[in-house]
Amino acid sequence: MDLNLDLIGKIIPGELYYKEITESTNLDAKMMANALDKSVFLADEQKNGRGRMGRIWSSPSGCGIWMTIYLKPQTDISKISQITLIAGLAVSKVIKKSVIKWPNDILIGQKKVAGILTELSAHANNINCVVVGIGVNVNTEEFPVELRDKATSLYMENGNKVNRTDLICQILEQFFSLYDSFINKGFSAFLKEYEEKCVTVGKEVLIINGEITKKANAVGISENGELIAEIDGKIEEINSCEVSVRGLLGYS
Ligand code: BTN
Predict the structure, then answer these.
(1) For ligand 1, what atom is nearest to the CA of residue 53?
(2) 140 close to 164: Cβ distance less than 8 angstroms
(3) CB proximity list for 63: less than 8 A, separation 6 or greater
């Protein structure tokens, strides 16, 4: 197996919790009431991998990176959705050919190669922990029929199998470095870099909020990481927690 837990453990400031098979690393992280800040939950396979908006995240054995970073940020609860953008930026910086579909879908071309599911455990306004689940399709050779138009893997794009340990280490190093700067300087320090990677800006998009779908022009990203959209001639700032965004032409 290409998962070297000793090497991965060395670059994690907290603890590494590994399971060969689990339901979902996000669930594992949320169930751990008092893990150390910056711990990582990693699995070779997830039986019940979860995506944004209640979707399923296909997570077979040996094919991908299924991991969750456990954080105890001393920050305002309103900043949590920005952590998810920072995680997307970290993954996209490591996967050189990739771009970001706001807020944090990582695409190669029109197809998704990685996704991020951030969840919060809080009482009133006090954050207990934030769990940032990262899924990367690494060595997947074939997707189920229903995903073939939308999903890709690094192997499918490059024709080479990728060592998951190397990739995990690069993503975690990148994430912890960006996250420390984010805690000190805020999201605005990353806005330019994020916008350069983000393909949503400048596009016509559909903003889907439950049953309601609206056409919009994505015109920018705000200092707080919200999508600035023009809807029926009016400018609105859209928070990533509330909506799903689709391109009118293709996935991105
Ligand atoms: C999405 O794009 O919809 C988010 C996908 C997030 C998948 C990862 S895999 C590791 C972690 N555990 C989960 O159950 N989900 C996240």
Answers:
(1) 3
(2) no
(3) 137, 138, 139, 140, 141, 153
Return the number of other C-beta atoms located less than 10 Å from residue 23's C-beta: 15
**For 97-156, how does the pLDDT look when each residue is reduced to its tens digit (9 = 90+)?**
999 999 989 999 999 999 999 999 888 778 899 999 999 999 999 999 999 999 999 999
Peptide bond into 103 cis (omega under 30): yes
Cα 47 to averaged position of ligand 1 atoms, centre (Å): 12
- The verdict on pTM exceeding 0.90 is yes
Quick: pLDDT tens for 148-198.
999 999 999 999 999 999 999 999 999 999 999 999 999 999 999 999 999
Ligand 1 centroid to residue 115 C-alpha, Å? 6
CA-proximal residue: ligand 1, atom 7 (nearest): 135
Beta strand extents in the chain (DSSP E only): 16-22, 39-46, 64-71, 99-101, 105-108, 111-123, 126-137, 204-209, 212-221, 227-231, 234-238, 244-247
Q: Is 68 touching ligand 1 by the criterion CB < 6 Å?
A: yes
What amino acid occupies position 162? V
Q: What is the sign of the dihedral through the CA atoms of 246, 242, 36 and 173?
A: positive
Per-residue model confidence (pLDDT) at position 95 = 98
Q: How many angstroms separate the alpha carbon of residue 225 from the centre of ligand 1?
A: 20
Closest to 26 in 3D by CA, of 55, 48, 53, 4: 48
Burial of 140 (0-12, 13-18, 19+ CB in 10 A): buried
